[in-house]
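Example record

Each entry pairs one chain with its bound ligand, S-adenosylmethionine.
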Amino acid sequence: MSLFSNSISLRKDSIRISDAEFVELRDFIYDKTGIFVDEKRKYLFESRFRRRLTELSLSSFADYIKFLKFDSSRREEMVRLFEMVTTNETSFFRDMKQLDAFRDHVLADVLEEQRKSGRKELSIWSAGCSSGEEPYTLSIILHEMLGLDISRWRIRISANDISKAMIEKARVGLYPEYAFKTTPDAMRKKYFKQDGDLWRINDTVTKLVDFKLMNLNDSATLKRIPRSHIVFCRNVIIYFDEAMKKKVVNSFYDNLVSGGFLMLGHSESLHKVSKAFKPIFHPGAIAYRKE
Ligand SMILES: C[S@@+](CC[C@H](N)C(=O)[O-])C[C@H]1O[C@@H](n2cnc3c(N)ncnc32)[C@H](O)[C@@H]1O
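Structure tokens for the complex follow.
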């Protein structure tokens, strides 16, 4: 390593975040996204943001906070900020036990209700969809359940995320091997085509899904999502504090049709968040029904 690159890395490492700067940055992130950065993650954030400071040739976190608040390019920086503060871990068929219970009970009941009422329509909302694996999995499950009859249904899966990079990836629909770590081989063979080292999802699956960049902290924008029979919001509210969880779950409540269902991640619950839903217990999954 040259002397020059050594001195650069020394300089980079010497940018430290003070306690006051951390609190100011944390509050700013919370205000924009509802994501609460715990004190324990301070050093992880320090190293993530330090890289960005170097790219912007800023020498302190105080300067970066000023940049975020007042610079003429602060709107574009917000896109970068959202990417730095989110965790986008996901995969196709994530939590198979929950998906099986969802298919056999929740989805089967909703489809049956719709059939009986003579309206072959279904709206699902995947809130915090990351790079698309969750809404595409839901589309595949629907294809498997309905078979050829799917062409007689009007199905819409609205999928949103705050990360522009994730929404763009989802729209491209090309996935590496690790996206399939929880996926049965038969499903990959049936709904994807190999493209070099990657796998491209079939158009039949993508056709049902509508991706949009959206911030769950922006209640007014959430009102534009069509009414849903089912909301999926898995492994998202875990990053929010209680106030933000309540705000987001209220938006889901307002969006759902009466008798509609909310599905959360397996480590999440509505305990201390909302009493407006009735928990329905299935082996491997809890579905929250809007009463
Ligand atoms: C861990 S991933 C979960 C993805 C998928 N739901 C799953 O369970 O596999 C959490 C996603 O929530 C998104 N997210 C976090 N805060 C958000 C917000 N305020 N508005 C919209 N999306 C948000 C992140 O960008 C990230 O892609």
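Residues 96-116 form the longest helix (21 residues).
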